[in-house]
Write a structure and sequence with these properties.
The chain has helices spanning 3-31, 38-62. The protein has 68 residues and is mostly helical. The chain has one domain. The longest helix has 29 residues, at 3-31. It is elongated and about 50 Å long.
């Protein structure tokens, strides 16, 4: 992997982590609202899980496998 590829992955990782934190805050706010929209809440949680999977994939790409 080149330094440029790693830099691109790092930038994408930072963006995805920020989006994940934003979704967490949105889910928390929606959950504590007087009449939460359950369908929207479910969609936000599903998106958050997809982001978590993508973040894990990128972290695996950045961190090389070391067999010790």
């Amino acid at each position: 992997m080149t330094d440029e590829d790693e830099g691109d992955l790092g930038a994408e990782l930072a963006r995805l982590q920020q989006e994940h934190r934003d979704l967490d805050a949105a889910i928390d706010a929606l959950h504590h609202s007087p009449a939460p929209d359950l369908l929207r809440l479910q969609r936000l949680k599903k998106r958050k899980l997809a982001l978590r999977d993508r973040i894990a994939f990128i972290e695996d790409q950045i961190t090389p496998d070391i067999i010790a």
